[in-house]
Amino acid sequence: IILEKLRTYPKTWLEVHAEQPSIFKVRLNPEYFPPYFLTGNTEKFVLLTVSSDNFLKEIQIPVSKQAGYVFIQTDKPIYTPKENGIEGSLGIGTSELSMFALSSNSSKELEVVIGDFIPSLLSVLDSDLIFGSFLLMRMGCHLINHSSFKSRIQRILLLMRSLFNKKFQGFGKTFVSYIYKFPKYPVLGEWSATVKYGHEYGEDQAVMYLCGKLQKIFFASGNTVLPTFTVELKAPEVILETDPNIVLTVKAKYVYGENVKGLVTYRLGVTGEGPNVLFFAVVGPKKLRDGTHLQKVETKEFADHPDIGWFPGIQGSHLVVEATVVDDATGNKEVAIDATGRFSKSPFWISFKKCLEDFRPGLVSIIEADINYMDGRPASGITTTIKASADGEPLEVAEPTDVSDEEGKVSFHLHPTMNHNTISVAVSYWKTAEPRYVGNQAVGHFVQHRFKSYNNAFIALERSSTHQLKIGDTFQKCSHIEPSAIKNIYYAVVSKGKIVSLNKLPEGNYKVQIVNLESRMTWFPASDL
User: In what residue span(s) does the Macroglobulin domain sit (predicted)?
Assistant: First the structure.
């Protein structure tokens, strides 16, 4: 790299002490830069030289004409002259534009410019390398020629220059909100808000010239009317084979809280695994009462339809309900859709996600099942029962019932013998507090196989629930060894993927050994043995 030296800055004397690192700020005022130093695309450098009687050190520091970041946003994506204001605090037809500026030094001056069809222009001036402008304009609008627009900017700049002068002094991070009031008859269409900033961005070229970076957002201004009321549709989460009716509920309210006066029409459909919906019935229009309507649909309508039918063919399909509410006063309408309802023989489903696929012969095997509603929520307080068989013969379970906890989990203890090879279980729910669900059984099946290894040897840890320990508490665990002649058995505590403790079991012919551990700080927050 060939460097051309343009100017030398005056020296600055610094005082440092041995073994005491110090940080010094050297300010480079852009006013002292040579003319046109920051223009063009060539790389610029400042050569920093530090010297004393004992050493000489030089480094090259690149200089950029771009610094800082600017982010802009509007409070809404769409505006209308008929609005009542923003957040209820502004006048009719107003919009709020925000700019967030990050620079190396504080911004000292903010100027606002308003012109015909170019509603606002915000400029951020920095004593160093930051200069910016905020431009709001309608896309593709050329109703004012450049010369008249330029003179209008100059005149209004002088009137509004002092609005935000003191607001940004002393802040390297600045957040600005500017409120623009739309005229009574604004130009409709797509508008844009643009931030332009960079070095040497002169006032005379504030709109037409850019030297720096650009951030742009788009929003619309038009006669689009935002929703004046909302519709809430509620359909059953599960439709059982024994249900005679499906109950649908609609609630419609204006944005200011009053109930909607109008009509509601329902469309009913069914969808399977694919995206297509088969709509087969229209109900209504029905009149809302106090903004609410309850509609009962006989399941016989599904069963009698030639393209839909009933169980078992409809098992697993989803009910699709579309409710359209029409306001009596304005004729405006809103649509709500619900597709969460599912046709099922049971409101629950049973899984064995955390159950081991093998058992150690002669030891206790724990069957853990998860009870969930059709939408995936854990079903707590559900009484379940288990039936087990070993190699085709009934296997007695000491406690064959359990109630699901807050996570929807149940567990059962089985005692296979040394001769058993396969265990089959069937877990079903037995009792629930919901009368509608009585008689609609859910059954989950699971099979465990005998653990196999060379010489049928194994090592097993007694299974138990999660232990809550404090630092220094003693922790015991029972280990089973088959055959007892196995030697060189190690046990480890693993926390966050790292082994935090490693020990060896005592030598000897022991079928059962107790592992004793004292919890340590390194076990936090959770550990596995």
Answer: 224-302
